[in-house]
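We modelled the chain as a single entity of 450 amino acids. Its sequence is:
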Amino acid sequence: MNSSFFSDMLQTIADRGRALIARDRRSPTEQSSANLVELCDQLLSGRGEASGVALASEILAHYAEATSGARVALFESLASKFGPDHGRLGAAIEAWRASPTDVTAAAVHLAAEPRRQELLRRLNLAPGGTAALVRMREHLIDALERRADLAPVDRDFVHMFSSWFNRGFLVLRRIDWSTPASVLERIIRYEAVHRINGWDDLRRRIDPPDRRCYAFFHPALVDDPLIFVEVALTREIPGAIDPILAAQDEPLQKQQATTAVFYSISNCQRGLAGVSFGNFLIKQVAEEIAREHPKLARFVTLSPVPGFAAWLRRERAVENSPTFKPEERAVLSKLDSPGWWRNDPLPLKEPLLRAATWYFLNAKTRNGAPLDPVARFHLGNGARLEQINWLADTSERGIAQSYGVMVNYLYELDDIEANHEAYAQQRTVVASSAVTRLMRTPAAKLASLF
């Protein structure tokens, strides 16, 4: 109700402001990128609040109707013409050198801020401004694929969004069958890990007593979720996704559950890429479920490994790769055969699990972090790599991305802080003994472990 009142108030201000500003009233499609840049300059010129809100609304309306070329031209102008005022910054630096005080340091800080950050603040005052800017950044992300010179503009978007979407503004809501249909439709559409096949499939995931779904919302985006997580309550740590997604004959009763499984986390707003919500979401959902089910002993994930297949293909092309033994190379070539997982896949089990273990423990980015993005997320949150699962996802996507491999990350409350520090300081991949011994277990014994 407060959010609606605030939106209505902004709309009233914008409507009145339009009567105060006189300008060319051509249609948005007739506005060139030069006109958009001119309007942005005018918005920064220090108008009153009412006319400023109206002008911000006009800019966003013109932008929404602009062609992709005009949008990129605007981003170019934001990069080249709306950076810091170099003259003002130079003067502030000289003043600080002459008298290094808190006051002169603050002046340097203010002068160093790019003008486009203030522009984004003023655009955000328009009714629906936050949502419009999130969509604008989606277009910027597309442009960045070809225009690395626009990266400074993108950094400013992330900087502003990190403040506007601070955890303090987010609201956690449980998604169940009584949730408005408009939100449920978005959950179906935004699911990014395990596709939801219609309303019946959605109901199987959120309605039974041993299934949960939670989402973060922001007041400026009303009923459009930012991120959501799907949870299954189980007896044991699961080693495959199909039993979780399949229709259940009988749900697990509350007193039978020992494990909460986070099996799907989906970011919903592409324009908010780089703004982290997932770590807060997992921890708060774990607290919510723990209050409801105090006897739960474990909080784990069942996570995809999206880059493993591509990485292993590259390693197989390296003549002396340490990832696998020489005699395993011929066995791994079976991965190139269509339907290999249906036709006597057992000989692949040992070399594939060994390669996956190597991938998690040794494959690194240039800055020493794990190559796998999902691993970086969970290890950075203090989880432990608990278990690597063979043929855990035999969907078309699971085979293509990871040869069916999935992993469990364990969130042990007593160890989260120490694990997080080990990862943050030394990029240590904290792994269970069950994982580390996969690197050295003989084939006969390995087969008996799974």
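As a brief sanity check on the tokenised model: The beta strands are 171-174, 211-217, 227-234, 259-267, 298-301, 303-304, 384-389, 406-410. The chain has a mean pLDDT of 89.
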